[in-house]
Design a protein that fits this description.
By secondary structure, the protein is of the alpha/beta class. The chain has 15 helices and 15 strands. The chain folds into two domains: 181 residues, 3-Layer(aba) Sandwich (Rossmann fold), CATH 3.40.50.2000; 183 residues, Rossmann fold (3-Layer(aba) Sandwich), CATH 3.40.50. 43% of the residues lie in helices and 17% in strands. Strand 14, helix 12 and strand 15 form a beta-alpha-beta unit. Helix 1 packs across helix 15 and helix 7 crosses helix 13.
């Protein structure tokens, strides 16, 4: 089959981008040709991908998106494919990988009526309706049940067009047999003693992921515990505002802001706790990556994958509505808890039995099913 994959931007460390790459690469391995349309590609392109970087010029994001969509659909009309797989909402998709939350619900509940009169709202509303509208034929690959009721509430999307995928954690995130040795080497490299504690936060878009909440919680730790606690924040984002916040809270010497990198498993083996106090999160792949590495997790319950942490017995949830005092208390308690080894053992046992690895295979099967109908 000839398959077209469409996404606005590719960079190596985004969760959506990593999911796209794994699905597209598996489709290629299964014998299909892969054509990729994007406005920007960072990093190396896999061999065999027909990468087409589409040039668009506009000062506004919605105008760039509209121009990109027109050029992509014109190209596909000239060179037809069996299926068009989108990772951002737009018209003309045969399948949509639903990594983003419901825009319409946010616009109606968190924005003013004046906002909904603007061109930006009209663009994103129409793009979402093109995928989820009752008159659309797009098949929807859901990676979490959290947002589904919202899409159905606003667009009356038929139930049969939703296809829930299992998580797709890469097995290279699992703790290896020599995990203890790797942990010791990592902690020696960064000067962490037996009594020191290392907090970890991984991702991009740290405003949404609640980095401010995590910094406030660290600053609230008792002096003795805070003095032996470090916080490593890794991701592709602008850290300036958070660096200023850390300085204002007088914890800047203990917080390291690091760009996205490929050796995240080392950090997860070396850390003592993953913190993820997100304001909202459709899934949160990093939560399961921490679980399979045996790293306890402290996470808000609004994240789509937060329930896995609870089911696995691999950490604690911050209940809604979020209270900073609750996070402050739970962070301190988890760092000194005698149950830390139990959380780790629970996480590793869960990783052995749960279906949290097969998302790319299931997605490829659905893409082939849609392509065969064409």
């Amino acid at each position: 089959m000839k398959l077209a994959f469409v996404l606005f931007k590719y960079f190596p460390y985004g969760g959506l981008q990593r999911d796209f790459l794994r699905i597209a690469s598996l489709c290629q391995q299964r014998g299909h040709s892969v054509r990729v349309y994007t406005m920007e590609w960072q990093g190396e392109c896999p061999p065999g991908f027909d990468l087409r970087t589409v040039s668009v010029k506009s000062l506004s994001a919605h105008r760039r998106n509209e121009s990109f969509q027109r050029k992509v659909m014109y190209s596909i009309a000239q060179e037809p494919v069996d299926a068009v797989v989108g990772f951002n909402k737009m018209a003309g998709l045969d399948l949509y990988y639903a990594a983003d939350p419901c825009y319409e619900d946010k616009a109606l509940t968190q924005r003013s009526a004046l906002y909904r009169l603007g061109a930006r709202y009209r663009h994103f509303h129409e793009a979402e309706r093109a995928v989820f509208g009752v008159d659309s034929n797009t098949e929807i690959l859901m990676i979490s049940e959290v947002q589904k009721p919202l899409f159905q509430r606003h667009f009356d999307t038929p139930e049969e067009r939703f296809h829930l995928l299992p998580p797709g954690i890469s097995r290279d995130r699992c703790a290896p047999e020599n995990a203890a040795e790797l942990r010791a080497a990592f902690r020696a490299e960064y000067g962490l003693g037996e009594e020191d504690r290392l907090l970890l936060m991984v991702g991009s878009g740290f405003k949404t992921k609640g980095l401010d909440r995590a910094l406030y919680a660290m600053a609230s730790l008792p002096l003795e515990l805070r003095s032996r606690t470090r916080f490593m924040v890794i991701g592709q984002d602008n850290f300036s505002a958070f660096e200023r916040l850390a300085k204002r809270l007088k914890i800047e010497a203990q917080v390291d802001f690091l760009p996205g990198r490929d050796d995240i498993p080392r950090f997860m083996l070396g850390a003592d706790l993953l913190v993820h106090p997100a304001y909202n999160e459709n899934t949160g792949t990093v939560l399961l990556e921490a679980v399979v590495a045996g790293l306890p997790v402290l996470v808000t319950d609004v994240c789509g994958y937060a329930h896995y942490v609870e089911v696995a017995g691999a950490g604690q949830l911050l209940e809604s509505p979020f209270e900073q005092a609750d996070m402050n208390h739970k962070l301190e308690a988890m760092l000194v808890s005698p149950h830390r080894d139990n959380w780790k053992r629970n996480a590793l046992r869960f990783a052995e039995r749960a279906d949290i690895f097969s998302m790319p295979e299931r997605a490829a099967e659905l893409i082939e099913w849609v392509g065969s109908r064409a």
